Amino acid sequence: MFFIRRPQLPWRWLIAYGSTISLGQFAFLFEAMHNGMPPGLASLVLQSQAFFTMVFAALFLGERLRSASVFGLLVAAGGLALIGSENDSHVPLLALLLTLCGGACWAMGNIITRRFGNIDLMALVIWGGLVPPLPFLGLSWYLEGPELIESSLRNIGLSSILSLVYLAVIATMLGYGLWSRLLSRYPAGKVAPFSLLVPVVGLTSSALLLDERLSAIQCWGGLLVMLGLLINVFGPRLREALRTAQA
């Protein structure tokens, strides 16, 4: 932030952005993983943000809610219900609900970004990063305790340091910088569904690096979530193609 000028926004909007897309999303996500949500499956369920974004955009930005989006939402909701139907030894209900809360926070951050208009979005990501550290420290102190914090810092290894670098530079600055740029140029309902690439990478990485395997019910639920996202993205094009073919 010492090298990037603060974006021309009121502080309340910077705080709102940092509180939702950075603090809220990851606080709920990490707590969900701590309560039993597998990392690969978390990357899938978190894509509920695409549908939260559509609903929030319709409520707060006046964007039209398409019939294909509603149908896709219902299909994806069925997939989430199927995932949640697993017993507690697979996906605890609390972990599923916490992940959905993380998706809702991500979606609200999308809406806040959409309202900004033409600003320096890299500066937005960097200055918005001022918000989470102290609340995260307070949550960690309350939920995990000072002993675990001290132990983690004393025993930090190379893999943890590289993970932090990846999260800070690639995932946050580059990833969210590009994501915010897309949201500033196009309707939120069109941009958000393209995050469906996230579960593909998440599930593949978890299988390769963490040996994570999904149960049959989780696989079917995940396929329904992906199908709902695909209907949302390509549904209007398919309907138009059918109308053209009939004409």
Topology:
Layout: H1 11-34, H2 39-45, H3 49-61, H4 67-84, H5 93-116, H6 121-128, H7 133-143, H8 146-154, H9 158-185, H10 188-191, H11 197-209, H12 216-246
Helix pairs in contact: 1-5, 1-6, 2-11, 3-5, 4-12, 5-9, 6-9
Give a concise summary:
The chain has 247 residues and is an all-alpha fold.
Helix content: over 70%
Q: How would you classify the helix and strand content by structural class? A: mainly alpha
Tell me what portion of residues adopts beta-strand conformation. Answer: under 5%
Q: Indicate the mean pLDDT.
A: 82
Mind describing the biggest β-sheet? none
Question: Total strand count, please?
Answer: 0
Q: Give Rg in angstroms.
A: 19 Å
Q: Give me the number of helical elements.
A: 12
The coarse overall form would be globular
Low confidence ranges: none
What is the ordering of alpha helices and beta strands? HHHHHHHHHHHH
Notes on the protein architecture:
The protein is mostly helical. It is 77% helix and 0% strand. The protein is built from twelve helices and no strands. The chain has helices spanning 11-34, 39-45, 49-61, 67-84, 93-116, 121-128, 133-143, 146-154, 158-185, 188-191, 197-209, 216-246. Helix 1 (11-34) runs antiparallel to helix 5, helix 1 crosses helix 6 and helix 4 runs antiparallel to helix 12 (216-246). The radius of gyration is 19 Å and the shape is globular.
Which labels suit this protein?
12 helices; mainly alpha; 247 residues; single chain
